[in-house]
Structures are given as structure tokens and as C-alpha cells.
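Hypothesis: this fold can be encoded by more than one sequence.
Test: take the C-alpha cells below, design a sequence, compare later.
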């Protein structure tokens, strides 16, 4: 959904609060709040801002809301059941124990944005965020925007991480990052090395092993000790892990949460769906880490060079925040408390791994952090200080939708 300020009377009254036209200079559109990112994190923030009658716009680099889900591999199903895949105000439309496909998730997010008329402007990639004279300045190509508040709403998984020696692989080897992998037909015959043995690597290795020989390289991350689709998991274990452990117990407010946070930030999650025995029965061969490239071939920690026609890098992502030109990163780490950056008043983050809790980057957990950011914006916003009876038409609309039994 692409909502230009002029495309809807509701949106136009709430989005841009003005534009500066200095002759001969670029025109900057002004907003009270800009949310950068229109995935689940940005939409949840939008929902909570709208509920408070606060004006805002959401920018997303993709062509369509939720394209980050659409772009994932074709066979991907969520590891969280539908009961835990809804954002605030709108449950996921499926039976509680179903595991949605990635396209069902994308469609859900798109209909969420439409249902609450969230003002998402797609195709806007913010390439610089800075501050001038107390205002945030956002640049997207040849367009400039100003805002009093900015919410950077996205997961840590924005830029593929690939080891630098990948460029030395023989050009005849097909190499892809997991973010570019869609289905086995993209690969050549001649064997596949999947590098990285966490959830993405294990799921892709298993899928590809139905077609050709597969080596899975990397540290064994362990596996949850139950099948996530078993009855006992659905009725008891999944709720305990997701709602109790990840959402309530492992937070920055508990000693155990603070103790485990660094580990959870630096380690991959255990395997959730694929079991070690699934990989073994499909003929996937576990091998050590890939440490170099020699004569165009990938080399393992045990010095073996593998003769493969394909390499799939399931080596993770980086946040890729180089476009943020603000002094908010201390030795690479974002300095914040629950997503609020005290050194840059008005700047918030939502969606990052363990921002507040182990559930912060997950669908069922992001709403709480989104509400926290919206409350913080409301507390300093002029709009937030208005009397409730002069709330904007967007807030009234949203409340009507909610009352209508969402
Ligand atoms: C393979 C995989 C499977 C997952 N499965 C589950 C699951 O089953 N259950 C679960 O709870 N979680 C799951 N997650 C975790 C999480 O729910 C997803 O990663 C989810 O997509 C995160 O949503 P988000 O909105 O925080 O960030 P993203 O989905 O990454 O969306 C961020 C948006 O911001 C936009 N953006 C980024 N930079 C800019 C910029 N500079 N300017 C403008 N726009 C920008 C991007 O275009 C993107 O649309 C999974 C993650 C992965 C990688």
C-alpha cells in the first residue's frame, strides 16, 4: 500500500505538517513523526501512534508492505503458530495451531495496514538520518524530510552478512545468500554447500537434499527438545516458551534476562523445526566451518577443500545502520534503553533483537515495544497533550474499527 499525503483526506490531514520551499533549494516535507520501516515493527508502531491520535507517516524502501516476508524462500513456514502471529488489534486469521506460510504472513500485514488505514509510503529508502537545528533530517534520494520524532522500526536483519573470502570462489560456483535463495531450481547440479547451520541453513539444507548432495557447514546450534507441531508443544510448551519465558521472564528487567541477553544476542537460536535426525535421514553431511577459499574452492576448518557447484551462505545479517549519521553507537552497539535513545530526544528503535525482551524481534512481542515508543512520543507531543475529545479522525476511525470486533 502506498499512501501519498494527498491520496486520502484522513491521511492528508495527519501526515505532512508542512513543507519548506526555499527558492533554489530542495523542499523538505515536515512530519511530526516518521516511522522508518513498514514491516511488523513499523505497522505496530503506527497502530499505537494512531490510537493516540498522533500524526505520523511510515516510510518503507520496498515496493509493497511486508515484502521482507514475501522475499523469503518459497517453502518457508513460520515457526510460531498463528495464535502468536497477530499484531495488536487484529488476530492472525487462521486456526490457532496452524503455521502460516511466509506469503500468508505478508498478506496479513498488508491487510493490517489497510484495515487501520496506516499511512505507509512505500518505495522510500531513507539513505541518511541526521539532525539539524533540533529537527531530524531524513534524506531519500533527492527528497528531504524533517521530523520531530523518528522511530527506526526494523529487525537486525537488513544486510546480508557474507565472509569476505566469498569473492574468491570460482565464478562457476553459484553462490547465494539465504536472503536470495527461493527454491532448489536456482542451483546447478554438482553438490551444494550450505554455510551456517542455524534455522535457515538447516531448513534450506533439508529442502535442497531432496534434489542433490548437500554438505551443511557450521557449529551445531542444538535443537529444542520437542517437535513444535506436536500436541504437547502446541498446548503447553509453545505458550510457556513464547509467552512466559521469552515475553515475561527474559527481559532487561529481570536478573536472568540481563544475564542471558548477551548470549541470546550473539548466539543463534536452537533448531526449531528441523531435527538432527531429519538432516541425517535426508543424507545431509555435517562438516566443520568454512574458513577460507583456496583455488576457487571453499575450505573447511579441517583443511578439506570441497568440490561443489553451489554455495548458499546462511551466515546471517547485519542491521546495516551506516545510513544513520548520529552519534548513537558506542563501540558498534546502539546506546538505548528499551529503544529510547536518551542522547537524541525523539529517536526510538523498535524491532531489534532483545530490545526489551527475548520476544522483541518476534511478531507476538513487538507490539509491547511499539506501544512503549508510542507512549514516549505521546508524552512529549503537542498532539498528545490535546484533550481527548479533540482527538484526530484517525484515532476515532481506529477505535471504531477496534470496537467493530477485530
Ligand atoms: C527466515 C526468518 C523466519 C522468521 N520466522 C519467524 C516466525 O516464525 N515467528 C516470529 O515471530 N518471527 C520470525 N522471524 C523474525 C521476525 O518476525 C522477522 O524477521 C520479521 O520480518 C521482522 O519484522 P520487522 O518489521 O521488525 O523487520 P523487517 O521485516 O526486516 O522489516 C523492516 C522494513 O524496513 C524497511 N527498511 C529498512 N531500512 C530502511 C530504510 N533505510 N529506509 C526505508 N525503509 C527501510 C525494509 O524495507 C523492511 O520492509 C523470522 C525471521 C527470519 C529471517
Amino acid at each position: 500500500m502506498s499512501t501519498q499525503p494527498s491520496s486520502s483526506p484522513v491521511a492528508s490531514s495527519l501526515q505532512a505538517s508542512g513543507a519548506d520551499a526555499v527558492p533554489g533549494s530542495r523542499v523538505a516535507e515536515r512530519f511530526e513523526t516518521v516511522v522508518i520501516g513498514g514491516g511488523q515493527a513499523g505497522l505496530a508502531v503506527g497502530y499505537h501512534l494512531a490510537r493516540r491520535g498522533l500524526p505520523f507517516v511510515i516510510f518503507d524502501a520496498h515496493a509493497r508492505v511486508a515484502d521482507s516476508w514475501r522475499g523469503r524462500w518459497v517453502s518457508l513456514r513460520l515457526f510460531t503458530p498463528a495464535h502468536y502471529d497477530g499484531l495488536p488489534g487484529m488476530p492472525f486469521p487462521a486456526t490457532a495451531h496452524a503455521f502460516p506460510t511466509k506469503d500468508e504472513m505478508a498478506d496479513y500485514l498488508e491487510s493490517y495496514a489497510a484495515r487501520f488505514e496506516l499511512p505507509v509510503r512505500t518505495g522510500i529508502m531513507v539513505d541518511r538520518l541526521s539532525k539539524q537545528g533540533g529537527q531530524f533530517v531524513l534524506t531519500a534520494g533527492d527528497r528531504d524530510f524533517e521530523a520531530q520524532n523518528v522511530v527506526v522500526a526494523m529487525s537486525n536483519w537488513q544486510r546480508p552478512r557474507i565472509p569476505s573470502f566469498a569473492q574468491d570462489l570460482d565464478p562457476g560456483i553459484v553462490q547465494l545468500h539465504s536472503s536470495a535463495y527461493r527454491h532448489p531450481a536456482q542451483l546447478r547440479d554438482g553438490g551444494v554447500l550450505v554455510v551456517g547451520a542455524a534455522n535457515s541453513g538447516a531448513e534450506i539444507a533439508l529442502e535442497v537434499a531432496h534434489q542433490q548432495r548437500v554438505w551443511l557447514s557450521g557449529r551445531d546450534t542444538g535443537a529444542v527438545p520437542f517437535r513444535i507441531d506436536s500436541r504437547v508443544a502446541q498446548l503447553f510448551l509453545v505458550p510457556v516458551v513464547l509467552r512466559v519465558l521469552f515475553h515475561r521472564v527474559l527481559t532487561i528487567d529481570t536478573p536472568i534476562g540481563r544475564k542471558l541477553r548477551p548470549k541470546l544476542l550473539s548466539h543463534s537460536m536452537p533448531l526449531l523445526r528441523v531435527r538432527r535426525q531429519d538432516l541425517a535421514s535426508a543424507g545431509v553431511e555435517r562438516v566443520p566451518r568454512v574458513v577460507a577459499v583456496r583455488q576457487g574452492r571453499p575450505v573447511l576448518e579441517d583443511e578439506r577443500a570441497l568440490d561443489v557447484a553451489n554455495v548458499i551462505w546462511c551466515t546471517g545479517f547485519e542491521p546495516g545502520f551506516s545510513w544513520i549519521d548520529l552519534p548513537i553507537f558506542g563501540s558498534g552497539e546502539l546506546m538505548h534503553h528499551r529503544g529510547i535513545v536518551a542522547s537524541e530526544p525523539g529517536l526510538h528503535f523498535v524491532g531489534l533483537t532483545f530490545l526489551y525482551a527475548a520476544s522483541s524481534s518476534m511478531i507476538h512481542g513487538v507490539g509491547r515495544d511499539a506501544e512503549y515508543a508510542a507512549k514516549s512520543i505521546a508524552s512529549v507531543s503537542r498532539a498528545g497533550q490535546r484533550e481527548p475529545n479533540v482527538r484526530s479522525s484517525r484515532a476515532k476511525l481506529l477505535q471504531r474499527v477496534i470496537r467493530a470486533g477485530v
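The radius of gyration is 23 Å. Confidence is low (pLDDT under 50) at residues 1-16, 386-391.
Hypothesis status: open.
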